[in-house]
Amino acid sequence: MSNIAERWQNIREKVDTTAKQAGRLPNEVTVLAVSKTFPADDVRAAWAAGAREFGENYVQEGVEKIAELDDLPAIWHFIGPLQSNKTRPVAEHFHWVHTVDREKIAQRLNDQRPSHLPPLQVCLQVNISADPAKSGVSIDELAPLAQQVAQLPNLTLRGLMTVPALDLDDTALSAQFAQMQQAFKALQSLHPDMDTLSMGMSDDMALAIQHGSTCVRIGRGIFGHRERKGNLA
Ligand SMILES: *Cc1c(COP(=O)(O)O)cnc(C)c1O
Fold first, then answer.
1. Is residue 46 situated within a structural domain?
2. Which atom, in ligand 1's list, is nearest to the CA of 163?
3. Among residues 9, 126, 228, 231, which one has the fewest Cβ atoms lying within 10 Å of its Cβ?
């Protein structure tokens, strides 16, 4: 068995165990395999091991990999910072975007989504740590942005995403994940079809699952050491 297959199984088992311990069903939590900086062959190895959904951070790299792997019916999530001059390739090639944080980006994605494709699946990024170096809206700004996105016909509002600050201890992290869970539930009362809370990475996935995460984003835990440092914005 390849290292990637072994690590995938190990992560999937950890997620299943953590979900059960938290009184949840394992199939409520998707493991998004974050393949940024890793070659297409590594994605194939993860696919062979059972991974079905992949996350990419960089537009150009992601689009190239999707083209190289177009024989696989994989689901591709864009999870990186998105500038308005880069929305078109994302709208044309990805299934999901986790990092919508302003109306202008949402509008462009909507306008550029090809009509032969289903709507783009969208999460709103929340800057839960109020970190000036990170993208995302505050919890106060969520409801109006959600309202705008929900009105765009070529986008489907699926939920929320967050990347907390790096230097938090478990107590602070727990508090922020709890705030996310609360904000998610509050927004669900206005948008009942929302079903996705994208939070948790290699080091904090257990805490995230305890706080209702439905999608953990794991890169190194599956693909191994990354040469180029990932952009965690
Ligand atoms: C890189 C990245 C991940 C995965 O991080 P790892 O440390 O490789 O597990 C998850 N989410 C986002 C937004 C990322 O940029």
1. yes
2. 13
3. 228
What is the Å distance from ligand 1's center to 219 Cα?
A: 5
Going from the Cα of 68 to the center of ligand 1, the distance in angstroms, rounded, reads 22
Q: Is 227 a domain residue? A: no
**Under 8 Å between Cβ of 10 and 202:** no
Q: Dump pLDDT digits (tens) for 52-78.
A: 999 999 999 999 999 999 999 999 999
What distance in angstroms lies between residue 88's CA and the mean position of ligand 1's atoms? 23
Q: C-alpha dihedral over 92, 160, 196, 146, to 10 degrees?
A: -80
The model's pTM: 0.96
Position 233 in a domain: no
Best mutation site among 217, 218, 223, 228 for ligand 1 pocket (most ligand atoms within 8 Å of CB): 217
The two structure tokens encoding residue 1: 């068995």
DSSP 119: P
Domain holding 101, by residue range, is: 35-194
Cβ of 163 closer than 6 Å to ligand 1, yes or no, is: yes
> What's the domain count of the chain?
1
Residue whose CA is at the smallest distance from ligand 1 atom 2: 232
Q: Does residue 42 lie within any of the structural domains?
A: yes
List, for residues 138-194, the tens digit of each pLDDT value: 999 999 999 999 999 999 999 999 999 988 999 999 999 999 999 999 999 999 999
Measured between alpha carbons, how far is 7 from 17 in angstroms, rounded to an integer? 15
Read off the CATH number of the domain in which 51 is found: 3.20.20.10
Position in ligand 1 atom list of the atom nearest CA 57: 15
